[in-house]
Amino acid sequence: MTILESRIFSFYQQGISLFKKYFRNKYWIAFILFIVWIFLFDNNSVVRQVQRKYQIVKLNKEISYYQKELQKTKIEEKALKYSDEYFEKFVRETYLLKRPNEVLYIFAEEK
């Protein structure tokens, strides 16, 4: 046996002895099983907490987006209520309405 093989073998035996030393005790086994259970299989596991944290961040972004859209809509609503020119422009652009004796040309954009 070479020196390298003897060192590897002694390292292997030390690892086995440490494993036997700590895992012979039933409390260590129970503790490790408890930790594995908490981290991987529980309803509030670390994996699920990270997923929920990501979901919270995503939902907060959606909330801020919809709040901005709501503010824009409220401003547009006020403009539609109080400005006849803006109302006419909005209706003509959105619903393609026209005045009498007026020709309306629609140009479609190609994608």
Question: Pairing-aware structural class of the strands and helices?
Answer: mainly alpha
In whole angstroms, how far apart are the ends?
74 Å
Main beta sheet strand tally, sense and closure: none
How many structural domains are formed by the residues?
2
Which strand-content bin applies to the residues? under 5%
- What proportion of the residues is helical, as a percent range? over 70%
DSSP summary: helix tally: 4
Mean pLDDT: 84
Describe the structure using short key phrases.
111 residues, mainly alpha, 2 domains, 4 helices
Give a description of the structure.
It contains four helices and no strands. The chain is mostly helical. α3 crosses α4. The N and C termini lie far apart (74 Å). The mean pLDDT is 84.
